[in-house]
Amino acid sequence: MKLFKRHNNVLPGFGPTMGYTLLYLSLIVLIPLSALIFKTAGLSWHDFVAVVTAPRVLASYKVTFGAALAAAGINALFGVLVAWVLVRYPFPGKRLVDALVDLPFALPTAVAGITLATVYSANGWVGRYLEPHGIKVAFTPLGIIVAMTFIGLPFVVRTVQPVIEELDSEIEEAAACLGANRLQTFRRVLFPLLFPSVLTGFALAFARAVGEYGSIIFIAGNMPMVSEITPLIIITKLEQYDYQGATAVATVMLVASFVILLVINLLQKWSRRYAE
Amino acid sequence: MHPRKLVTIIAVLSLALATALPAFSAPGVTLQNVSYDPTRELYQDFNNAFARYWHKKSGQNVTVKQSHGGSGKQARSVIDGLDADVVTLALAYDIDAIQEKGLIKPGWQKRLPHNSSPYTSTIVFLVRKGNPKHIRDWSDLIKPGISVITPNPKTSGGARWNYLAAWGYALHQKGGNEAKAREFVTKLFKNVPVLDSGARGATNTFVQRGLGDVLLAWENEAFLAINELGPDKFDVVTPPESILAEPPVAVVDKVVDKHGTRKVAEEYLKYLYSAEGQRIAAKHYYRPIDKKVPTKLAKLRLYTIDQAFGGWQKAQRKHFADGGVFDQIYGAAK
């Protein structure tokens, strides 16, 4: 066991802290989650499959995971851009912009949802210019992507930012000296260095978007089979006092999130090795 | 200040305090009323009135705490352990769910007059000022080009009343039958561009986002919206007929027995039926049961859920359960 081999810790007290960690994780994470699985266990396997593969539920997975994928993709692209600008260029109000990036973390999601719906609906600030061109954002799947992009933005920026900070601009200069043009420098030199962190940020933004409820519900329109997200399906089942059905769908979400987080962890491990 | 004067002031103050104290230290009792969204203002008024009444009657001070939210969510909170002495919800179905968990004794709906619904309401139309699309009756809602705002019946108690009101209307028309009703409701939902998860969300969509020509709403919510947002923007249209919405109330037996609050909780609900309780309900645009209490609400033909659907349990199973008629309308049947 590699974990226990290192005895030369700076701070003593591995025992109590490890005990505390386990207790804490159990109370906050493990016990509620096992209660979830336990409740689902009331269903037979056949019923479980029937519940989690009902057409309406399947449609909601498609919406949820599809929109989350799109949103994470948008964030990966523009998040890198934002991080790059924030690290490399001095400009007035930089600190303010830097703080602004974290706002989606702090803002209650319901507030975000109501605000986004206001801005993007047909009579909103942005919506009124989009609607005449046939682009409907609020109350369509597009609205879901907008909300998910909003809440996922900080993840990419904050994972990529420190990596860009560590990049010496000398690397680019060296590449330029060796005759690489700008695109080549980016493609061959910078991108490989940034890639692992972008991927991590992407995965984090994706995981967050999949679980998002508060902000989406106000902008999605919630039409069955079209713009209904999986968390709403869970709420719908609870409204019918169908606890088992709700937990069954929740379990699918849980497993999906767990797989995503596992992938993130592997990516981080990989990127660390890559960086060394 | 002269010390003598100060002494006098202190003396007077302490005397005042001493006389006031018994009032404060008189045995007090707290009730928790778990209700749904649109009754917030109604119960703020009513709780004050009841506190006065109960103090006069028993010398006891009663504080009533309010909790509001979606009706189904509130019922689940009570099931999951929120200590509600009384529940005042949007549908009997939600109180039935609490009863099923053994918190309320069976037959609760017979314990108070009028199906345990001290006030009733109905579903009306909120339209833009001047009613530009000439919406007068349910049949106008299925016309092409009319955009109807209603919340999702799967997540909102109020929306279930909307849906059933439309169904009941179609059923009552000449030559009306189940198939016709289904066709009518299907057409109606084709005109619905957004399904908000709750009644207040739908009101927001209609009022703030400017979406839709008509909002299906509780009558009291419609008038509340007009009062809050200005009568210059919206009109209430009362259709010639609609469903009689009966939001029921019940004492949560397990909780009041634990708290020892049964007597005051029962009195609290009974007081809703008193002249003053009825007057307060009418003031908040609910329809009073007591015919002597004046109301400004328009007269219309009202059908009950028992008449048209055979009660909530049946209506819920047939229409809103997974794979039910509502799911079938959206092509999402199992």
From TrEMBL, chain A:
Record gene name: cysT
Query: Which named protein is this?
Result: Sulfate transport system permease protein CysT
- Return the similarity comment: Belongs to the binding-protein-dependent transport system permease family. CysTW subfamily.
Keywords tagged on the record: Membrane, Sulfate transport, Transmembrane, Transmembrane helix, Transport
The cross-references to InterPro entries, in alphabetical order and at most eight, read:
CysT_permease, MetI-like, MetI-like_sf, Sulph_transpt2
Could you give the subunit structure recorded for this chain?
Answer: The complex is composed of two ATP-binding proteins (CysA), two transmembrane proteins (CysT and CysW) and a solute-binding protein (CysP).
Q: How does it sit in the membrane?
A: Multi-pass membrane protein
Print the organism lineage: Bacteria, Pseudomonadati, Thermodesulfobacteriota, Desulfuromonadia, Geobacterales
Which coarse location class describes where this protein primarily resides? Answer: membrane
Q: Which SUPFAM superfamilies match?
A: MetI-like
| Pfam families tied to this protein | BPD_transp_1
**Transmembrane stretches, by residue range?**
21-45, 65-87, 99-122, 134-157, 189-207, 213-234, 246-267
Question: Which residue numbers delimit the ABC transmembrane type-1 domain?
Answer: 61-264
Q: What does this protein do?
A: Part of the ABC transporter complex CysAWTP (TC 3.A.1.6.1) involved in sulfate/thiosulfate import. Probably responsible for the translocation of the substrate across the membrane. Part of the ABC transporter complex (TC 3.A.1.6.1) involved in sulfate/thiosulfate import.
- Cellular localization per UniProt: Cell membrane
TrEMBL record, chain B:
**CDD domains the UniProt entry points to:** PBP2_CysP
Q: Signal sequence span per UniProt?
A: 1-25
Q: Where are the transmembrane segments?
A: none
Q: Has the keyword Transport been applied to this entry?
A: yes
Chief localisation class = periplasm
* UniProt entry keywords in alphabetical sequence: Periplasm, Signal, Transport
Q: Does the keyword Cytoplasm apply?
A: no
Q: Which domain of life is it from?
A: Bacteria
Q: Which Gene3D superfamilies match?
A: Periplasmic binding protein-like II
**Localization annotation:** Periplasm
Q: Which InterPro entries match?
A: Sulphate/thiosulphate_BS, Thiosulph/SO4-bd
What the record says about family reads: Belongs to the prokaryotic sulfate-binding protein family.
List the protein's name.
Sulfate ABC transporter substrate-binding protein
What are the leading ranks of the lineage? Bacteria, Pseudomonadati, Thermodesulfobacteriota, Desulfuromonadia, Geobacterales
